[in-house]
Amino acid sequence: xxxxxxxxxxxxxxxxxxxxxxxxxxxxxxxxxxxxxxxxxxxxxxxxxxxxxxxxxxxxxxxxxxxxxxxxxxxxxxxxxxxxxxxxxxxxxxxxxxxxxxxxxxxxxxxxxxxxxxxxxxxxxxxxxxxxxxxxxxxxxxxxxxxxxxxxxxxxxxxxxxxxxxxxxxxxxxxxxxxxxxxxxxxxxxxxxxxxxxxxxxxxxxxxxxxxxxxxxxxxxxxxxxxxxxxxxxxxxxxxxxxxxxxxxxxxx
Length: 253
Hints:
Number of helices: 7
Helix content: 25-40%
Shape: globular
Distance between the termini: 29 Å
Mean pLDDT: 96
Order of helices and strands: HHEEEHEHEEEHHEEEHEEE
Largest sheet: 7 strands, mixed
Strand content: 25-35%
């Protein structure tokens, strides 16, 4: 029951665990496994011919070093409370260390998970702000941009202590979000849900949020920005000189 990299034949079992753990539907999983997944960025545990636990990661950069953003850590419901996640995380840390990664990041889904990961060596490292805005009846000059344009402009507006997330990160994000740019801002947002907009990351001039909503035809919106109010990502150094980042913006909720 040693952790291993998955085979192509195990992908249907990985999808089953994901569905049971997170409730995502096939279109979402199709997008992940076609844009965000690579077998060399996944570790899983098989028991009696069945994959029972898995985790994935994306490569990110900070301070000139490569970190891993651990994502979708899950165990099949029939095999929970057996220490498999702790075993899998320890294995992932060793694999990442052997491959030259300097640290690992993750974003817990709730406070219980935050405490669990703290017991595995993770500590809170970044915070964010979230605010709700109503639309103003004044539009603003803005335009949809490509993933490549977002990647380029994000580096310009990213806080100096921010984590760089590109390549597979943005290919996957592009399947569930839209990218916009204006004169002094950059926005990654989920497709609007009725009159609501969910801003996944908002960089730049935050005062224009009401005008963005007007332009996109939304009555209200929530926006996630760099800030100091809400605990967000956790960090575990995999080597002694690895610094903790101050901002991690693109969590794939």
